[in-house]
């Protein structure tokens, strides 16, 4: 029902083109991308820009069922959908839940039920009338968060425009029974790095309250500054990721706890999204990338149990977690691809792309503010999207013009290859089928393959480290963390083996068990005579440990290698016995139990 109502709402004009919430194919990044593009476009036209951020008080609790059904009828929605909506919102009851609360239900005459997938869509339809056009400006919304952007020759003129727009918005909201939260109202005056005059401190007066412009504003999880510096945003994302890392590190201390493949899953599905939120819109500076990478290296070491002396390029391959700069670039490519393949009729960011970009349809937003800067000269003229940025960096692309330029490997040399739509169910009408090999999932796979290719190009020399990069976890990461950690350390060349020095080469490298040869990974597993009696019992079928050896993809051979390492104490810390006891004995018994991870290993091999 939610998909059907969403399709009908778009077809009947119940939604505004600048609503970016609770709708399939749209996200918070579309709203923030549209906002940054409009601000930069208006600044290119040598206009001052200001934005007022508002929040609807109560939100879902103020939806009136009769008014909403009247909107649906006025737009010609099918009567059965109107009746279903009225039935969904009528005859509802609720009660308070707290210790000792009475079990008495009270009738509810307004509001939409929380938790239902239809409720956000009904709320979006209900508040769509609040949107109004701002000359040389923009009205954006995401659920109950509104952003009013105005531009003129001065900041004080912007304040006057915003005050008028707020009064108009408040009047429309009063007719719908909604109001705005005063404490959550924020104002920001945008500037550029070329502005030498100090940023204006002119406040705005709304409903008897004075709101001074902020130096930092949080909207939809993105931290904005007047100059659109990305450092404050990623500094806060780094702090959030570090706090999350402190909590999950307790699940897997060094040498025990969760196996590495679960640590890998936590790193890729929890820590990286927290760390990189906003990277699809904001580009961190090189200094900020280095700070983020230091944290990412800690996550990789926690995943693999590798030493601090392990080179970071090898560490990334062992953890199956690509370097952070490549991951951020990959995330921006996916965000750009999603915008390029979205229908311009429903995505305000896609509707502001250059007309020559072959999006799924030729629809574009009107008026197009990029025409205001056509009279500029020199470095103030935006760079055409097909033209690469010169080394001097005096000219730059507009934010949305940079997206197709970064995806020329998909658009083709001339940038005129047709693009598929992300999903056919986003609109009632169907777009033509994409050419063979150019569906949206296939284009995403091209971005993924490009990530792996760039990773391989930055990988260490095979003579120093022969194992290839892989995004999927290694099958042996399904072993317990102690045994898998021995393998990670020996493969990386930084372990307790004597031929794997940590920081200096002064220590002897001869194998302490046989005193015949340097104690390398291959010698300790396959060549050491002192461990010869243990090989027939535990290491049958393992004759090679190179990058293409079957041991890295075979469940039985990995079990045999695990039992051999535990029985011979290979690469164990020097203070441990040859056969671990007590807690180490439990590690040994766990390492032989590869069957419990057989499903994971088999899935990785397949």
Please characterize this protein's 3D structure.
The radius of gyration is 30 Å and the shape is elongated. The chain has 20 helices and 11 strands. The protein is an alpha+beta fold. 40% of the residues lie in helices and 8% in strands. A hairpin with a 2-residue loop joins strand 8 and strand 9.
| Helix run count | 20
| Overall shape | elongated
Oligomer: single chain
User: Which class do the helix and strand fractions yield?
Assistant: alpha+beta
Q: How widely separated are the two ends?
A: 38 Å
Query: Radius of gyration in whole Å, from Cα?
Result: 30 Å
Keywords:
single chain, 606 residues, alpha+beta, five-stranded antiparallel sheet, 20 helices, elongated
Provide a short characterization of the protein structure:
Helices cover 40% and strands 8% of the residues.
Chain-wise SSE layout:
Blueprint: H1 2-11, H2 28-44, E1 48-57, H3 65-74, H4 79-89, E2 92-94, E3 106-108, H5 118-126, E4 138-142, E5 145-152, H6 155-176, E6 179-180, E7 186-189, E8 204-206, E9 209-211, E10 217-219, E11 222-224, H7 231-249, H8 260-276, H9 286-304, H10 312-319, H11 324-340, H12 399-406, H13 408-411, H14 440-457, H15 481-492, H16 521-527, H17 534-538, H18 555-568, H19 582-591, H20 598-605
Antiparallel strand pairs: 1-5, 1-6, 1-7, 2-3, 4-5, 8-9, 10-11
Helix pairs in contact: 3-4, 7-8, 7-9, 8-9, 9-10, 11-14, 18-19
């Amino acid at each position: 029902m939610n998909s059907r109502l969403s399709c009908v709402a778009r077809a009947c004009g119940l939604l505004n083109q600048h609503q970016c919430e609770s709708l399939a194919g749209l996200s918070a990044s579309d709203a923030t991308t549209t906002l940054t593009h409009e601000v930069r476009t208006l600044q290119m036209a040598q206009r001052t820009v200001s934005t007022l951020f508002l929040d609807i008080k109560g939100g879902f609790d103020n939806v009136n069922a009769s008014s909403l059904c009247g909107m649906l009828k006025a737009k010609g929605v099918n009567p059965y959908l109107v009746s279903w909506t009225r039935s969904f919102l009528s005859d509802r009851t609720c009660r308070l839940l707290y210790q000792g609360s009475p079990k008495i239900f009270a009738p509810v005459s307004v509001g939409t039920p929380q938790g239902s997938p239809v409720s956000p869509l009904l709320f979006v339809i209900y508040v769509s009338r609040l949107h109004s056009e701002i000359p040389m400006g923009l009205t954006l919304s995401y659920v109950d968060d509104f952003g009013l952007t105005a531009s003129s020759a001065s900041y004080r003129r912007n304040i006057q425009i915003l005050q008028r727009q707020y009064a108009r918005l408040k009047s429309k909201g009063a007719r719908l029974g909604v109001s705005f939260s005063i404490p959550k109202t924020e104002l920001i005056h945008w500037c550029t790095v070329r502005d030498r005059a100090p940023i204006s401190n002119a406040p705005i007066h709304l409903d008897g309250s004075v709101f001074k412009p902020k130096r930092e504003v949080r909207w939809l999880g993105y931290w904005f500054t007047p100059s659109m510096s990305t450092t404050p945003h990623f500094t806060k994302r780094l702090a959030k990721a570090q706090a999350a890392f402190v909590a999950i590190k307790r699940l897997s201390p060094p040498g025990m706890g969760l196996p590495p493949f679960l640590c890998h899953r936590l790193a890729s599905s929890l820590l990286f999204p927290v760390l990189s939120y906003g990277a699809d819109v904001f580009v961190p500076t090189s200094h900020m990338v280095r700070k983020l990478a230091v944290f990412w290296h800690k996550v990789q070491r926690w995943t693999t149990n590798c030493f601090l002396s392990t080179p970071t390029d090898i560490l990334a391959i062992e953890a199956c977690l690509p370097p952070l700069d490549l991951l951020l670039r990959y995330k921006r490519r996916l965000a750009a691809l999603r915008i390029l393949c979205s229908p311009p009729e429903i995505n305000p960011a896609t509707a502001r792309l250059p007309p020559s970009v072959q999006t799924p349809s030729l629809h574009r937003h009107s008026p197009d503010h990029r025409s205001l800067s056509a009279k500029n000269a020199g470095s103030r003229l935006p760079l055409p999207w097909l033209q690469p940025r010169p080394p001097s960096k005096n000219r730059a692309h507009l934010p949305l013009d940079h997206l197709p330029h970064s995806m020329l490997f998909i658009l083709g040399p001339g940038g005129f290859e047709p693009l598929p739509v992300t999903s056919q169910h986003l609109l009632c009408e169907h777009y033509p089928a994409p050419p063979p090999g150019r569906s949206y999932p296939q284009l995403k796979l091209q971005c993924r393959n490009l990530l792996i290719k760039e990773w391989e190009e930055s990988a260490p020399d095979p003579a120093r480290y022969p194992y290839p990069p892989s995004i999927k976890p290694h099958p042996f990461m399904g072993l317990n963390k102690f045994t898998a950690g021995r393998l990670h350390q020996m493969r990386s060349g930084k372990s307790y083996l004597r031929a794997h020095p940590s920081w200096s080469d002064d220590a002897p490298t001869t194998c302490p068990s046989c005193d015949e040869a340097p104690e390398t990974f291959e010698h300790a597993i396959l060549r050491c005579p002192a461990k010869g009696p243990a090989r027939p019992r535990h290491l049958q079928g393992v004759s090679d440990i190179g990058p293409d050896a079957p041991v890295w993809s075979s469940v039985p051979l990995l079990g045999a290698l695990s039992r051999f390492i535990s029985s011979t104490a290979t690469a164990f810390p020097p203070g441990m016995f040859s056969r671990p006891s007590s807690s180490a004995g439990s590690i040994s018994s766990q390492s032989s139990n590869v069957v419990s991870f057989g499903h994971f290993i088999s899935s990785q091999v397949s």
